[in-house]
From TrEMBL:
Spans annotated as Disordered: 1-22
PANTHER family per UniProt: CUPIN TYPE-2 DOMAIN-CONTAINING PROTEIN (PTHR36156:SF2), SLR2101 PROTEIN (PTHR36156)
Organism superkingdom: Eukaryota
Entry protein name: Cupin type-2 domain-containing protein
A Pfam family it matches: Cupin_2
Length: 178
């Protein structure tokens, strides 16, 4: 991912993070607009990293103890480790097509604006509309915004064990566009 000077068409994502003061009182420790990252140089498809944990269950005591938030997201570590989880938002421009890929993760997504087509490598296409949810389980897939409107999807991505089919482990994979 890279940064660019392009301005996304959808409003930025605001992140509010809660924690505790040193005397144990609840407090808001971050209330900010997330800066977008972009798929590649010159891209207008935006990614907003909202939160991350390297382990499940999360160790929130070590991250938030004195009103400070150790922001592991700020440097964007990419996808998710096998024991962690990431909360992320994706904005897809009209006509955007993301190449076929597989991640070793369990992804829970909700379409909050627009419409997106999920295409699997068996050529099955499923159109998801605003309010629909998807559970992506390590399959080869791509995303296609076949409309003239922007689409926003929020995902919680959790690390997973690789899928094993007939003794073959299916690893992360990105295919070149055809």
């Amino acid at each position: 991912m890279s940064t660019t000077t392009s301005k996304p068409a959808l409003p930025p994502v605001r992140r509010v993070v809660t924690g505790h003061t040193t005397d144990g009182k609840s407090t808001v420790i971050r209330d900010e607009v997330q800066p977008p990252q972009f798929w590649s140089p010159g891209s207008i498809n935006a990614i907003y990293d909202i939160g991350r944990t390297e382990t499940i269950p999360a160790n929130i005591d070590s991250e938030i103890t004195t009103g400070e938030f150790i922001d592991e997201i700020a440097t964007s570590k990419g996808h998710v480790g096998s024991t962690g989880a990431v909360f992320r938002s994706f904005d897809f421009a009209p006509g955007a097509v993301i190449p076929f890929h597989r991640t070793v993760s369990m992804d829970f997504g909700v379409i909050v604006k627009g419409q997106i087509v999920l295409q699997l490598d068996d050529d099955k296409k499923v159109t998801l509309n605003q309010g629909d949810a998807v559970v992506q389980r390590g399959t080869i897939h791509n995303w296609r915004n076949e409309t003239d409107e922007w689409t926003r999807i929020f995902f919680v991505v959790m690390g997973a064990h690789p899928i094993n089919i007939n003794g073959e482990e299916l690893k992360e994979e990105w295919r070149k566009p055809k």
